[in-house]
Amino acid sequence: MTVEHFDVLIVGAGISGIGAAHHLQANCPDKSYAILEARTSMGGTWDLFRYPGVRSDSDMYTLGYAFRPWTGAKAIADGPSILQYVKDTARDEGIERHIRFDHAVVRANWSSADARWTVEATRDGAPVMLTCHFLFMCSGYYNYAAGYTPEFSGSTDFQGRIIHPQHWPDDLDYAGKRVVVIGSGATAVTLVPEMAKRAAHVTMLQRSPTYIVSRPSEDRIANGLRSLLPSKLAYGITRWKNVLMGMFFYNLARKKPAKVKAKMIDLARQALPAGYDVGTHFTPSYNPWDQRVCLVPDSDLFIALGQGKTEIVTDTIAHFTETGIALGSGTSLEADIIVTATGLDLLMLGGAEVSVDGARVDYAQAMSYKAMMFSGVPNLATSFGYTNASWTLKADLTCEYVCRLLKHMDRMGMRQCTPILNDPKVTDEDFLNFTSGYVQRAKGKLPRQGSKLPWKVHQNYARDLVMLKYGKVDDGTMIFSNPAPIARPAEREPVTATVG
């Protein structure tokens, strides 16, 4: 088997992976690289999800790349527009030719003897082997093969169709049908008003309420600035405006949760029909930002609830029936279609098995370094975005730091960098301080974070900007070494033509 070697292998051709490739080309142009993508097309989340109304739940001035202005009129953009933005970036930056489609990474082993990763992938069932000096995992944080669906008693009795949004069928016709959407997160609040446009009736069945706030789909300030200033300058100003507003709102919610909770509930009450039962359906039991706040553009969910074809039911599920769902309260919901918008199944590093010198890495026992690397694991970084802000804000910073790290190693003549937990005063904590179901279910898969820097996870863009863009790379915790290279056969030159 021929083994190709690259300076850097990027895993995943979604919004993170394409961004990583840009930063690598711009900051480390001498580095050879390839992108391994398990699917047949790029785009990641924005190519996978095809359910009605799929859109961002963050504004595109922060979800977009720092280096490429978002020029669409809508700040809350639909999925196809975001996918096209990612594809346009890959095309214009010359990244497409570096992507190896249908390459699913199965395992990666680091060899300290020769300071390199051996990466095993499959393509059409056949094994593919590659090596690299640095492995950059940009494969997201959830299982692309299947979403999370609880076991519902009697689900096999239901005579209609049960659909998970992660795998929306092309042939589903819901026009004139009764639909029940189970869930209260971002996917559910997107689906309900969109499906209500064609369905006979749509019910959002939630076990408990979520904080839901409305935001204009268009940013008038951004559109105004773009008409007056160069595109990049206008984008940069808007980006920082939205970053600072988001940070202010989040910090206020953490410092004065009762006040922010009351305000958010009052805003929902004002947007809903008079007399709507806000206490039951829009008053969560937890504080704001203990879970992610749901964003709806132009009050579309609230408007749909006032038009008579949509309702919210807050109850538990006793069991499915032939014609719908029996509820814990003793009532029932009739349905032709049930959509289980019940969340994601978190998966670290795309499910790849990672080992160091033959010893398998247990992520749950590792400590997260700067929320992107793992204690004791050399030359590997992962792109993991914010839970309280746009994913790409952190992804961009992570990419810049990886490039700084690679350049520092070159200047020092070092081939290996390893975060080492050498401070006995550091205690471990949960990686994400989030009560959302998908996070709680994945506790056993996630790494730990530490009680102090650089092991502490901030969830704060400004602080991360200072640490990752301007902070010291050689900080005493990142240990640099230079294993003597072993003799090995001549390596095949990397191929830059698209394979897929």
UniProtKB/TrEMBL annotation:
Presence of the UniProt keyword Oxidoreductase in the record: yes
Keyword GTP-binding found: no
User: Which InterPro entries does this entry report, sorted A to Z?
Assistant: FAD-binding_MO, FAD/NAD-bd_sf, Flavin_mOase-like
- GO molecular function terms listed in the Swiss-Prot or TrEMBL record: flavin adenine dinucleotide binding; N,N-dimethylaniline monooxygenase activity; NADP binding
Among SUPFAM superfamilies, the record links this protein to: FAD/NAD(P)-binding domain (SSF51905)
Q: Keyword set for this entry?
A: FAD, Flavoprotein, Monooxygenase, NADP, Oxidoreductase
Q: Which family does it belong to?
A: Belongs to the FAD-binding monooxygenase family.
Identify this protein by name.
Cation diffusion facilitator CzcD-associated flavoprotein CzcO
Lineage here is: Bacteria, Pseudomonadati, Pseudomonadota, Alphaproteobacteria, Sphingomonadales
